[in-house]
Amino acid sequence: MRRHTSAFLMVLLAVAWAPAAVAQLQPPLPSPNATVAQTIGMTKVEVAYSRPHVKGATRKEERVIWGALVPYDQVWRTGANATTKITFDGDVTVEGQKLAAGAYGLYTIPGKTEWTVIFNKVTTGSVADYSAEKDALRVKVKPEATEMHELFTIEFPQVTSSSAVLALRWEKLSVPVHLAVDTQAQFLAAAKDAVAKAKADDWRTSLTAARYLYDNKYASADAAAFLDKSLAVKETFNNLSFKASVLAGEGKRKEALAAAQKAMTLKDTDPKPSPEALADLEKKMAEWRAAK
């Protein structure tokens, strides 16, 4: 009797589990999902979208895309399957217009000579769920001819520390969208916060902040304050040799040599400099001595 009861329970469990298992099985999508991400300075941009084919999932012949499969002058979900989602973890400008950090549905209105690119506050659903009242931003851009793209592709073909081009490419058309971020302001704000929160014995964080500001030639007062703080926490070969370079750049060769000589006295203490760093400072000291 116990054996029959156990077998009966096993059958019940199998039946109860089977629908859940079947429900979890998903066939491959004709238009596969994709995610592309790019960091611009300190701002991450991520796009989650689907990639339809020019030929379609099973067709051998090419379809007419623009003005046919994707009609002109109508809102397009900019992909397939569902709304394309774009996320910015910092404030940006799009074609010169401000857009706050956040997640947006990326819609477009294709035209023969001009496209409207839309950032909508709703990130889920389909075109049927789109409402212009929830648009956060609309910009106008010009399409360009490009090489053939069988799959719809979103990519970042151009990137700098403060800007990027987001390109929508399908068939023989590319739609460039220009993004920009205020990397300098973002870094300065992040540096001030990081230095304020640094541990009492942390000389590295303030030195990192000072290096970036000096190297990029802005916020000089903050750069000097960060460097002074690093030295106040602990004098090391790293921050003293950097201080020497800063002084030399200001034309203060005597003070630069004094800082460099002090740095050399710490070359055998932790953190020990690399042979390359030692050689570089020795070369600079020779140049400063030789200069009139």
Summary, kept brief:
The chain is an alpha+beta fold and 292 residues long. The chain has helices spanning 2-23, 183-197, 204-215, 220-233, 237-249, 253-264, 275-290, and strands spanning 33-40, 43-50, 85-88, 92-94, 97-99, 102-109, 115-120, 135-141, 144-159, 163-180.
Commentary on this structure:
The protein has 292 residues and is an alpha+beta fold. It folds into 2 domains: 33-180, no CATH class; 183-290, Serine Threonine Protein Phosphatase 5, Tetratricopeptide repeat (Alpha Horseshoe), CATH 1.25.40. The protein has 7 helices and 10 strands. The strands form 2 sheets. The protein has a 6-stranded antiparallel β-sheet with strand order 1-2-3-6-7-8, with no helix packed on it. A hairpin with a 2-residue loop joins β1 and β2. α3 packs antiparallel against α4. The longest helix has 22 residues, at 2-23.
Average pLDDT level? 91
**Largest sheet entry:** 6 strands, antiparallel
Share of residues in helices: 25-40%
Q: Based on DSSP secondary structure assignment, what is the total number of beta strands?
A: 10
- Across the major sheet, the strand order is 1-2-3-6-7-8
Shape: elongated
Class from helix and strand fractions:
alpha+beta
Discrete helix count:
7
Order of helices and strands: HEEEEEEEEEEHHHHHH
Cα(first) to Cα(last) distance is: 106 Å
The whole-angstrom Rg is 29 Å
Strand percent estimate? 25-35%
Number of domains: 2
User: Ranges with pLDDT <50 over ≥5 residues?
Assistant: 11-21
